[in-house]
Amino acid sequence: MRRSCLFLPGNQPNILQNGMVLPCDVLIFDLEDAVSEKEKDAARELISQALTTLDFGVREKVVRINDMETFHARLDIINVTKAGADALMVPKTVGSDTVQKAASILDEAEEKADLPLGSVGLILLIETAMGIEKAFEAASASSRVRALALGGEDLAADLGCSRTKASRELFYARTRLVMAGRACGLDVIDTPFTDARDAEGCYEDASYARSLGFSGKLAISPHHLEPIHRAFRPSESEVAYALDVVSAMRRAKEEGLGAVSLRGKMIDLPVLAQAERTLELATASGMLSTSRSTSTKGD
Amino acid sequence: MKIQKKAHAGTLESGDVLVTVMPSDTLTIEIQSPVVRQFGDAIERSARDVLDAMNIRQGAIHLDDQGALDCTLRARLHTAISRALMEEDDTADPSGKDGNTVVMTE
Q1: What pTM, to 2 d.p., does this model score?
Q2: Residue A263 has pLDDT above 90, yes or no
Q3: Is CB count within 10 Å lower at the N or C end of chain B?
């Protein structure tokens, strides 16, 4: 589940330790933009120590490494892999070259750390025009890729346009990224909402992202976690329908049918997949317990 | 191995620790912390762990603690030593026979 993916600056210990209690799905420890050039070594060591010793619970632990074109990237990958990162976020991903370069160093890092090959994932941050155009190539370049994420600020700079609250300038990039990611069976994470004080603006932006097919949203402030979760919370009627779909499809399977009628409409496997996704979101939102019992309604 | 040049890591912000390492003929650890009475021994143990792991036998270590967690202390000390050893890590003294001192102040 990657609804809310919160960036934490990598060289600020008082903020890093808050990651143990913040209610997000994914923590992204940042070694890139949030850390000055002369503090890269200190941040790398601090994040590695934090990953080794602090308990971040069930939150996915991701480290945004430095640009693969810098010498920092290799040191980042080797150190944070050994320290226990679940995945690495690769900034400025452009096509398969970036992914294969990261995956190759990751192979070596896992071997050095005595980890099973392929256990650490990659989340690709796509934030240039060329990166958007090559999104499918990147997404399909390695079995390590777990998700695509959109970096709207850098993309707008690359496009030479202004970032606006309505984000119309990102429409093509957003839909293109959702297509590329979903085509590869991946999660797709939307760009952060940049006004930390505007929770309702964040809610509107996250709701729009969900309507386009995104699975979650990056966040630069803990104040955005609640509106993001609210945006990705299914309605009561969506959950009721999803429960009915799962139940009806279970009956259909028992009867050897591939499709079945529910509320006057035919439902089949893609509808089931959508229903299961809704129930996952409902469970994450606290609307359903993890031990679910379903009641069925007739057609 | 001994510290060959002065180096810093960390800050004086809350939850952090400013570590300064300097050359010295002996190994000294000076701890300044608002919680030195409660955690001085634990801070010293962690510092010694890092120094042992990095095989540091000589150097003056100053820790200006602002309520850092153990992992932060270890990270900052490791970084300061790594910076101090940069390009000069061929000056190791393997004898390990130097005296050492600990000073703690609130």
Answers
A1: 0.87
A2: no
A3: C
Q: How many CA atoms lie within 13 A of A213 on its CB side?
A: 17
Q: Predicted ipTM?
A: 0.82
Say if B70 falls within a structural domain: yes
CA distances from A279 to A242, A244, B29, B31, B99 (A): 7, 11, 56, 53, 65
- Asked if residue A138 lies in contact with residue A95, where contact means CB atoms within 8 angstroms, the answer is yes
* Range among A233-242, A254-263, A268-277, B67-76 rated most confident: B67-76
Question: Residue B58 domain-assigned?
Answer: yes
Tens of pLDDT, residues A5-49: 999 999 999 999 999 999 999 999 999 999 999 999 999 999 999
Q: What is the CATH number of the domain that holds B53?
A: 3.30.230.10
Is residue B92, in this structure, part of any structural domain at all? no
Residues of A in contact with B15 (CB under 8 A): 13-14, 17
- Full residue range of the structural domain in which residue B66 is found: 7-84
Number of domains in chain B: 1
**How large a percentage of chain A has pLDDT more than 90?**
81
3-state secondary structure of A205: helix
> Is the CB of residue A18 less than 8 Å away from at least one CB of chain B?
no
Chain A positions touching B76 (Cβ under 8 A) are 42, 45-46
- Is residue B64 a part of any domain in this protein? yes
Confirm or reject contact between B53 and chain A (CB < 8 A). no
